[in-house]
User: Which sequence fits this backbone?
């Protein structure tokens, strides 16, 4: 991790800014300023303030945030799952993507999971159609497992699908 890169655990006061950041990076026109948009695959919102607040309050969960000049520009959600840890919602402000913030957030998340929870591995799910994102995670050491999970069609909390063929693949990385 580059020196000077810092994260902190999100608080309930961060929930509105986190929801705005995450929605701006994943959905709608604003997300198209970055390379990691889901706007062509999914419509609707990605999250809301209540869902973020519930994650912050839930035991075994943390959202790490990164700020630059007092502005929230990145975050990542971690959930303890036994000896493993789930990584999700890796988010960087679209106009700051491709500057290394995502790589640094992943490194911070992995270090946090080991230090605070003794996690031995990290896993995540990525929409299988997101080949560029799958390749990006593979360059960070995550391996495609071949294990698939269905997309939760009908649950608008995950978005409004624009295609009938969405599914997730599980990626995993050893932290030991």
Assistant:
């Amino acid at each position: 991790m580059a020196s000077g890169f810092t994260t902190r655990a999100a608080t309930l006061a961060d929930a509105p800014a986190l929801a705005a950041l995450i929605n701006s990076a994943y959905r709608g026109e604003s997300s198209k300023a970055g390379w990691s948009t889901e706007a062509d695959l999914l419509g609707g919102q990605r999250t809301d303030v209540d869902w973020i607040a519930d994650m912050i309050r839930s035991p075994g969960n943390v959202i790490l945030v990164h700020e630059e000049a007092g502005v929230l520009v990145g975050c990542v959600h971690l959930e303890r799952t036994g000896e493993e840890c789930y990584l999700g919602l890796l988010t960087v402000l679209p106009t700051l993507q491709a500057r290394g913030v995502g790589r640094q957030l992943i490194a911070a998340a992995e270090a946090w999971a080991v230090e605070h929870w003794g996690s031995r591995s990290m896993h995540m799910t990525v929409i299988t159609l997101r080949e560029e994102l799958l390749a990006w995670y593979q360059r960070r050491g995550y391996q495609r497992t071949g294990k698939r999970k269905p997309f939760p069609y009908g649950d608008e909390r995950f978005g409004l699908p624009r295609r009938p063929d969405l599914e997730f693949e599980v990626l995993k990385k050893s932290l030991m």
Remarks:
- Strands lie at 8-9, 42-43, 61-68, 71-81, 84-92, 121-127, 143-150, 160-161, 167-174.
- The chain has one domain: 8-174.
- The helical segments are 15-26, 28-31, 49-57, 101-117, 131-139.
- The domain at 8-174 is CATH 3.40.630.30 (Aminopeptidase).
